[in-house]
Design brief:
heterodimer, A: 102 residues, alpha+beta, Folate-binding fold, four-stranded antiparallel β-sheet, two-stranded antiparallel sheet, 2 helices, 20% helix, globular, B: 991 residues, Ubiquitin-like (UB roll), FAD/NAD(P)-binding domain, 51 strands
Chain lengths: 102, 991
């Protein structure tokens, strides 16, 4: 059972307090999009073995969404950050580079 | 014949006899006995029958790895099958029964399988019970079901309670042997919070039994001191009878503590599940001795050498008078020593190693025991008990050199570290050829959130074998000084996987690997020969390691045999996956207090008590209880529902609608937001008005519906379905927080803040007028309008909306006023023939009007267009959730199943979920279907069956008669009609 820190309320919480939301940083494609774009948005996921950016909701806590960078194989957590970002922040990428190197 | 010795037994108390029964026979043991040791003490060696061949079996082990001695313990509501006698403490009055034997343990009919065993090889079921097909159902399956299984299932609900305990620590030590104690002491001295769990009642592990000198003291004394020091420390929690069951992500560990399973007094919780979050886990779980694979190694009397020692020294029980020892390592010589010291005979030691000259071997030889080097067992003689062994050269093909008379055999094939806790979360193993064992690879531990290993092993679990190695490893693991002990020289092990090396098929077919599942060397070789080369495939084909012991004794031997047959090395073949729990865990323990009424929280509306006292028949709706109907004396539920519908249509009905979701959406961008969430336009709704809306997911599928009321310029109140309230609230938050986070909107879930009462029927207005306080006329409050005001002195928000087709109001009041207003309305309504109605009447009235219900007409594959709801989909909006999804070609196919009404020709009701039968059959030979029933009722209003359904091109086929399936009966004919069965012009609501 994972332990993740909610960046919104600052608590480190058990996975049972959280609701998973799948892959992060998806771009929404609406009515103007082509079939391929829409398919990719709705269905195609990296399903990475390794570094994964993912959505979590602190459902049984502050109720806020956040994002996490986690290695799906080793379960190493490189950091959690605001859901209100289009891409992983620099410090998360640094943490990943550092974690991968060791 | 096994028996109790006159002296000895460090764990038993000879002053406290304990009475128990086995298969109805009254027996006596001592406090401190396990069921297995007490049975052996009473001369009861046969303790069960094997799974497949029903061979008589006795204990081979003395711990949780035991595969054979499984029993049914207890009676009635405390009956439990498949309990291991080796870890079941004896208590006064314990009743145990043998299992998998019929008619009796001594004479078992299933034994015929054994005689036919050469016709029942691995994969027998897959190969044999193939054809003819009907035979499977009528002959094979009933036979297999009767023959299979070990214990019987309990017939009563578990009488016991179970509880959880949550705990946190820096270091969790699993295992209270000398390695675990050393690790715990070091962690304690480092100032850490420590929890140490030990599955047995006493701490100390093997060292206490086998003896050693630690820090200049006898092992037992050193252990006593260590335990005292730990108990004294406030930062240490010691828990005995508590097994480390499983290690999970990021240092989460489940341990199960036995609270009453070991004693006659069953009051209080039976087990406690510890849910521990540990900074690090030290698995000091020891090692398990491996059996040797020789012919007849399952005959009662053949035991692990260490188990023989345990029964002798811990319980004062001798497994036999004359014990032959067969080994490939030095450790078994300790058993010889223990037997000799107890005054029992060791006719011979068969050691497969060609030459050994270590101190313990010399000592035993000096005592005059015949030690035969390079020898092994060709076969064991006996049926229900060992009578002797044939000796052969280990390097040969089994040619008999000598016969030795004996009544017990102690075998040792070396030791396998218990790596389960290391492996549960991904710790990797390496093959140590010198020690012939898989042991944890310290370079590849299971990793925690910080990317560092969070499980370490200590002592024998790391692969350490001698006392000195164990202590040094434990100290190094935690970072402390190792207690001092003498280094004893031991000769290396010589791995042996089959005895003798050149054994032919006949011998191989009597060499058991997995005792419980009756898997033999010949079965694993057959699996390899038939192409099941992966260890995971071979396991499933042969069932090796799939029994309740999960292969604790058999896995390594099995995969070594597989490797040999495939001409691969053991590490190339690898192990199967280790999964929690370490030993079987009672389901009740995992459920804890979450059973019966406490399984889920129960949500009650403010009018719940009124409904309860007025005879509500309840149905669960999500976590809520809603009244299904209010049956009167002598009425069936169907009668009550029928009466409620008629009364509401003719006079006045009242429904508790409080469970409907109520989400307040407010902010400068709220209109824009709701335009994205609903398929229709909500931003144009005028304050004071209501609009019915649909919500879809990005696939375009309909996920919820309800009435939206605009409260003011920046505020909307969205009603959701009862089951959808939390889900839709979460859905809104997700989009606001993660996609449109710059939009100024906030959402509050007010569902439980308000009670809501539907007042429905031709007399609805009159009862409200009688209460008085606000203008409820058609002019002041037209259909789909709402207004704030007072009714009977209570502040209310009054919506004029209808889900029944009748003149209808829904009154929202703060939850605390709900019950009072309900009672006032019931009282005022008496003059107007008011009756409460339940959810079933609600459903029928909406179906009579052709209103859809989320979850009936929708199932996650239905778009609003399928339901003829195009009118509720805005054509003006560029975008809404689901719009792109609905543009996909699949939803525009002409033969899509669409909503229609269905009217049976004979007036009966269609079956719920019935399929509309199409023309011919499909490629699989199945009948083609062209639709299905989504809602079906007997309409009390029309006094005939009415239904809604989705039918291919349905709306174009009005008047057509099609056939619907009926289980066990002829198909039923129904005509396609409009889904609006009642008052199609809507005159009744428009008054």
């Amino acid at each position: 059972m994972l332990l993740l820190t909610c960046p919104n309320c600052g608590l480190t919480v058990e996975e049972t307090e959280l609701a998973p939301g799948g892959e992060a940083h998806l771009t929404r494609f609406g009515p103007a999009s082509g079939d391929a774009e829409f398919e990719a948005y709705l269905f195609l996921r990296d399903n990475a073995k390794g570094v994964h950016f993912e959505r979590w909701c602190h459902a049984y806590g502050c109720g806020k969404w956040f994002l996490a960078a986690r290695d799906t194989a080793t379960l190493q957590v490189f950091g959690t950050y605001s859901a209100q970002t289009k891409e992983p922040p620099a410090e998360i990428l640094e943490s990943i580079a550092k974690g991968r190197a060791t | 014949m096994s028996r109790r010795l006159k002296t000895g037994g460090r764990l038993i108390d000879r002053d406290r006899p304990v009475e128990f029964t086995f298969d109805g026979k009254a027996l006596r043991g001592y406090a401190g006995d396990t069921l297995a040791s007490a049975l052996l003490a009473n001369g009861q060696r046969v303790m069960g029958r094997s799974f497949k061949y029903h061979r008589p079996r006795s204990v081979v082990a003395a711990g949780p790895e035991e595969p054979n001695a499984l029993m049914e313990i207890g009676t009635g509501a405390r009956f439990e099958p498949n309990q291991r006698a080796t870890v079941q403490p004896l208590w006064e009055g314990l009743s145990a029964r043998s299992q998998n034997a019929w008619p009796s343990l001594a004479f078992d009919v299933g034994r015929v399988n054994d005689l036919a065993s050469r016709f029942l090889p691995a994969g027998f079921y897959y190969k044999t019970f193939m054809a003819p097909r009907p035979a499977w159902k009528h002959v094979f399956e009933p036979f297999i079901r009767k023959a299979a299984g070990l214990g019987s299932a309990p017939t009563e609900a578990d009488a016991d309670r179970y509880e959880f305990k949550y705990a946190f620590c820096d270091t969790l030590v699993v295992g209270g042997g000398i390695a675990g104690l050393t690790a715990a002491l070091a962690a304690m001295r480092a100032g850490e919070r420590v929890i140490l769990v030990e599955s047995r009642a006493t701490l100390g592990g093997r060292a206490a039994t086998d003896g050693a000198e630690i820090d200049g003291k006898a092992a037992e004394d050193w252990i006593k001191n260590a335990v005292e020091a730990l108990e004294k420390s406030e930062s240490v929690t010691l828990v005995a009878r508590c097994e480390g069951s499983g290690v999970y992500d990021h240092g989460y560990v489940i341990c199960t503590e036995d609270l009453t399973g070991f004693k006659a007094d069953k009051s209080g919780p039976r087990e406690r599940v510890w849910r521990i979050r540990a900074g690090r886990v030290i698995a000091a779980t020891g090692a398990i001795e491996r059996p040797l694979s020789f012919a007849g190694n399952d005959i009662p009397g053949v035991m692990l050498a260490s188990a023989v020692r345990d029964y002798l020294l811990d319980y004062g029980v001798s497994p036999g008078e004359r014990t032959v020892i067969v080994t490939n390592n030095d450790d078994a010589y300790r058993t010889a020593k223990a037997l000799l010291e107890a005054g029992l005979r060791v006719p011979a030691i068969l050691d497969v190693r060609p030459e050994v000259n270590s101190p313990i071997v010399r000592d035993i030889k000096d005592l005059g025991v015949k030690v035969h080097m390079g020898r092994g067992i060709a076969r064991v003689h006996g049926n229900d008990a060992v009578t002797g062994v044939s000796v052969c050269l280990q390097a040969g093909d089994g040619a008999v050199m000598q016969e030795i008379r004996c009544d017990a055999v102690a075998m040792s094939g070396g030791w396998s570290p218990v790596v389960h806790l290391w492996s549960h979360c991904g710790g990797k193993l390496l093959w140590d050829a010198e020690r012939a064992m898989f042991r944890p690879d310290p370079a590849r531990p299971p990793t925690g959130a910080d990317g560092e290993g969070f499980v370490k092993t200590a002592g024998a679990a790391s692969g350490a074998l001698t006392t000195a190695e164990v202590l040094a490893d434990a100290a190094e693991t935690v970072g402390g000084d190792a207690p001092s002990t003498a280094v004893v020289e031991e000769a290396p092990i010589r791995p042996v996987w089959v005895m003798p090396e050149g054994a032919g098929p006949k011998l191989r077919a009597k060499m058991w690997l997995d005792y419980q599942n009756d898997v033999k060397v010949s079965d694993v070789r057959l699996a390899a020969q038939e192409g099941f080369e992966s260890v995971e495939h071979a396991k499933r084909y042969t069932t090796l390691g799939m029994a309740t012991d999960q292969g604790k004794l058999s896995n390594i031997n099995g995969l070594a045999v597989l490797a040999d047959r495939l001409d691969r090395t053991i590490p190339e073949v690898g192990t199967t996956t280790f999964r929690p729990p370490y030993t079987p865990t009672t389901i009740g323990a995992l459920a804890g207090e979450a059973r019966g009424e406490t399984f889920q929280p129960l949500r009650r509306t403010p009018m719940h008590d009124w409904a309860e006292t007025h005879g509500a028949y309840w149905e669960p709706v999500g976590h809520w209880r809603r009244a299904y109907c209010f049956p009167r004396a002598g009425e069936s539920h169907a009668d009550a529902v029928s009466r409620e519908v008629k009364n509401t249509r003719e006079h006045l009905g009242m429904l508790d609608a409080s469970t409907l979701g109520k989400l307040l959406v407010r902010g400068p961008d709220a209109g824009r937001f709701l335009d994205m969430l609903y398929t229709n336009m909500m931003s144009t709704l005028k304050p004071g008005r209501c609009r019915y809306g649909l919500m879809c997911d990005e696939n375009g599928f309909l996920i919820d519906d309800g009435v939206v009321a605009r409260i003011d310029e920046q505020t909307w109140l969205c009603h959701t379905t009862t089951g959808g309230a939390d889900r839709i609230h979460g859905w809104m938050e997700d989009w606001l927080q993660c996609e449109w986070w710059d939009w100024k909107v906030h959402v509050v879930n007010l569902t439980e803040q308000f009670a809501q009462i539907a007042v429905v029927g031709p007399n609805a207005r009159r009862v409200l007028e009688k209460l008085g306080g606000m203008d409820v006329s058609a002019e002041a409050l037209p259909f789909m309008a709402w207004a704030d005001g007072t009714l009977g002195g209570v502040d209310v928000r009054l919506y004029r909306i209808s889900f029944s087709g009748e003149l209808s109001y829904e009154i929202a009041v703060p939850a605390s006023r709900g019950a009072a207003l309900w009672s006032a309305l019931m009282e005022a309504g008496a003059d107007f023939d008011v009756m409460p109605y339940g959810t079933e009447a609600l459903h029928i009235m909406r179906a009579e009007k052709g209103f859809i219900m989320i979850g009936d007409e929708t199932d996650g594959t239905v778009v609003p267009q399928d339901l003829g709801l195009d009118w509720a989909i805005s054509k003006k909006k560029d975008d809404y959730l689901g719009k792109r999804g609905q543009m996909r070609s699949e939803f525009h196919k002409p033969d899509r199943w669409k909503l229609v009404g269905l009217e049976t020709l004979d007036g009966t009701a269609l079956e719920d979920g019935a399929y509309a039968i199409g023309e011919g059959t499909n490629a699989n030979g199945q009948t083609v279907v062209q639709g299905r029933v989504t809602s079906t009722y007997h309409s009390p209003t029309l006094d005939r069956g009415i239904a809604m359904g989705l039918v291919a091109r349905g709306p174009e086929r009005m008047g057509e008669v099609i056939r619907f399936t009926r289980i066990g009966q002829e198909p039923q004919e129904a005509r396609i009609v409009s889904p609006v069965f009642f008052d199609p012009e809507g005159e009744k609501a428009n008054v």
